[in-house]
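Extended Data, panel c. Modelled sequence:
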Amino acid sequence: MTLKTWLSLGLLVLLVHLVLLQKIPLKLPASPQEGSPSFATRTVVLATSSKPVPSKAAAIQGKPARRTAPQSKPIPQPVTAPAPSGLADISSTMAAADTTARAAEPTAEPIASPASAPGSAPTPAAEQALAIAKPAPVIEAGPVLQVQKVTFRADGLPGSVKLAYRVDANKFPFTLRSALIWQHDGSSYQAHLSIHAFGQSRVQTSRGTIDQLGLAPERFSDKYRSELAAHFNRAQGMVSFSANTPSIPLQTGAQDRLSVLAQLASLVASAPQGFSPGTTLQVQTIGPRSADIWLFTFGNMETLELPGGTQQALKLVRQPRQTYDQKLEVWLAPGLAYLPARIRITEANGDYVDQKWEASEAAVGP
């Protein structure tokens, strides 16, 4: 063979080796050791869709899932709270406890309204006076009353006096005794009402000042075995109770269950012509545990035959507004400076206590 032929064969072998070297990888993978786990990972890309995904239950049934419409919140319905009940001044057993009453919002001075104008529109003062909060006492439906403001004159206050009463009660076959001591010096007052039976007594006291609206009580107490008291904080416009019942807002012209008797006397004496039969007077009245709105309806002048003699007296009635409320009847006598000549309290079950004027004595100021 010629040299040219050998060179051609050598070049061909070199080219074959170069091709084979290019196909061999530069680094071979290591073989896994025996017993060691091998892992394989992969990334899965999910396609997004704007269509809602059907629920599992709907997918099983082969039906598309139903969308639930948002439910609207129920509209709360107004709830009318029952009016609180309260006890009057003296009970026949002298052991009746006061019931809890609702608080009242501040309002204008006591108002008198003749009941002879049904159907007339209530004034803002009337609506404010009837608006009681946390919650409001229920005022029975009836004719709308025309409102007339009541004025107070200092010379209408009765002079200091002690009134003695004979007390009849259906639970007792014998006569009891009670006494009302009323004292004032023109700027402050004090009232004391007591009833005694079998060596025990129930005593109510009220003390305070006298302002342009009449009596402004500062403290009222009711004592039978133990004492309960209400404190009038006029700077804060609140009344607090020693019985740890909630404090309540104090209305302008508010009275306690004892001072209201003298306040009625002074208001009637200030303007006797302003209280024709059917007139209703409302006063926020504070007890030892609670407050209530007392509505007094005026009647006619009556002649009373009493243990102390005959008296002409103007009758007022506080009618029950709830099932267990008491009925309170008061006769204000001009001959006693419009202080009560008779006080009759009737329970819901018919039991009563009837206090009738027997004698008067002079008393000095507080």
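The longest strand covers residues 291-306. This feature is highlighted in the accompanying rendering.
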